[in-house]
Amino acid sequence: MLQLPPPTPSDLQRAEQLQERFARSFLASNDDRNAPRTVVIVPSLTLDQEVLARISGVHHYEERQLCMLLLLRFPRTRVIYLTSTPIAEPIIDYYLHLLPGIPAQHARRRLTLISCDDASPNPLTEKLLARPRVLQRIREAIPEPETAHMTCFTVTELERALGIALDLPVYGCDPALYHLGTKSGSRKIFREAGLEIPLGYEDLANEDDVGKALAELKKQQPELERAVVKLNDGFSGEGNAIFDFRGAPEGNALDDWIMQRLPHLNFEASGMTWGLYSEKLLAMGGIVEEFVDGDDKRSPSAQLRIDPTGTIETVSTHDQLLGGGNAQIFLGCRFPADESYRIDIQDRGLKVAKVLADEGALGRFSVDFLSVRNKQGAWRHVAIEINLRKGGTTHPFLMLQSLTDGHYCRDTGQFLIPGGEPRYYYASDNLESELYRGLLPFDLIDIAAMNRLHFHGTNQEGVAFHLMGALSEFGKLGIVCIGASYDRAEAYYRETVDILDKEGKAWLRKAGK
Q1: How would you class 426 by CB atoms within 10 Å of its CB: exposed for 0-12, middle for 13-18, buried for 19 or more?
Q2: Which of 370, 352, 364 is nearest to 299 (CA)?
Q3: What is the mean predicted confidence (pLDDT) over 254-270?
Q4: Integer angstrom CA distances of residue 332 from 319, 339, 431, 460
Q5: Class (C level, CATH) for 9-172
Q6: How many other C-beta atoms lie within 10 A of the C-beta of residue 26?
Q7: Max intra-chain CA distance, the chain
Q8: Closest CA relative to residue 84, chosen from 112, 50, 44
């Protein structure tokens, strides 16, 4: 990753001035849908590239923020969308035709797409900073800089440098607060917020620290069978690994036994090795926690936002859909979270938000929990992670909000469309099959049109796709299925999968495979 020189005092002063300007303009225009504004979208995954490389089709994940093109439903809003490589025009057309009440041509005039034409695995923000002419094109595309801001997937020193280079405020946390969203930082924030966390240890710098933490964990909880080792900056569960205590000796032999078995961790990331994992541990640090188990275990999440004026807003709750050998990998989500605990999860998320707001945090973030129900039916909620950035639950909710023009009801934890009826959804970033390989975005759109797999404005239900660029090479795409109930939303999902599988098999037969 590009190593930037430290920001100068004048750089930091200018960044602070831009953020102050953003707070004033946000306060003046946020409630006015006709206010002129420009949003520069930087969907850069400025995270560890070797860990990200374990995710199938990850270089297409810049497309996940294309849901923000639906901001063009506001008639005086301009969007500048930046990418590493050009996005296929059928994908752009697909999103523009989702806009409710706005002609696609009207929206297209207010959309500027700028690509670096660089397919290397480096973060998009790094590519932008290395191209002064591209930066100049971005500046020229902003008609009124005083009403413009950048929004990013995550904010690091690179994104701050880009904001300074473009003379734009950033709708996201200052990089100085980055540590608050790491696995170690999350545990500290949870303690300050008064939330229960798994038994464990943070701020582990190397494999010796991990070994000692695992030994202490086992001594404190002798019946513990498994523990989770997590890299501080792991993404989507790909930095997690499971340590198995079964067969562990007692007494002084425990420490040596753990160190001998440490290279044989059960890694969640496909193809991960102990050599690479230990390097990442040295580079970013990590934590060790008990593996929270239970017969009825869920993974709910609360999404919140701190706006530029410091106001805290509850955005949503979800039940996360997890996969992998130990259910550590994020696959998708169901909205809203289960009725029996969604308000509890929301309230716990608000406690975290208040601590983060006091620290100066800004933008969207999520708080993840593990919830286990006991024999009496009561839920135990254990806080496990803060994602101080956009995440896998961000874009499905933005699509629901934009497609229906509804609102989240904090009192019930439901989303209500303008007529007052609730809406639910089932969303996934990992609808993946060998049957889908070779399908182009146009093919998917054609299949959707033939089978009425689209969002129906009349009844405010249906299907919307994303991550379409990953379809041809990886057989992978994302989907948001919206319905008037959980069952309706999941029925849309099952119907879509059945149709795509049927189409894939039909084409294989025609090809003689």
Answers
A1: buried
A2: 370
A3: 92
A4: 9, 19, 9, 21
A5: alpha beta
A6: 18
A7: 72
A8: 44
Let me know: does 211 contact 222? Beta carbons within 8 Å.
Answer: no
Q: How far is CA 37 from CA 45, 65, 170, 179, 310, in A?
A: 25, 18, 14, 31, 20
- What average pLDDT does the structure give for the chain? 92
Residue type, 307: D
Q: What is the DSSP string of 439-508?
A: --HHHHHHHHHHTT-SEETTTTEEEEEE-GGGHHHHSEEEEEEEESSHHHHHHHHHHHHHHHHHHHHHHH
Mean pLDDT of 349-374: 96
* HSE, side-chain direction, 13 A CA sphere, residue 407: 7
Torsion, Cα 2 186 365 415, to 10 degrees, reads 150
In contact, 163 and 362? CB cutoff 8 Å: no
DSSP state of 61: G
CATH 3.30.470.20 assigned to 183-196+295-388: yes
Q: Which amino acid is at 224?
A: L
- Residue ranges, CATH 3.40.50, the chain: 9-172
Residue found under tokens 């057989």: 475
Q: 386: closest CA among 206, 207, 195, 214?
A: 195
Rounded Cα distance between 485 and 289, Å, is: 36
Q: Categorize the per-residue pLDDT at 329 as very low, low, confident or very high, splitting at 50, 70 and 90.
A: low
pTM (global) more than 0.90: yes
Does residue 230 contact residue 183 with C-beta atoms inside 8 Å?
Answer: yes
- Beta carbons of 186 and 177 less than 8 angstroms apart: no
Q: Is the dihedral of CA 47, 53, 59, 62 positive or negative?
A: negative
Q: Is residue 376 within a helix (H) or strand (E), and if so which, with residue range?
A: none
The whole-number pLDDT of residue 50 equals: 72
CATH 3.30.470.20 domain position(s) in the chain: 183-196+295-388
Two tokens at 279? 């390097």
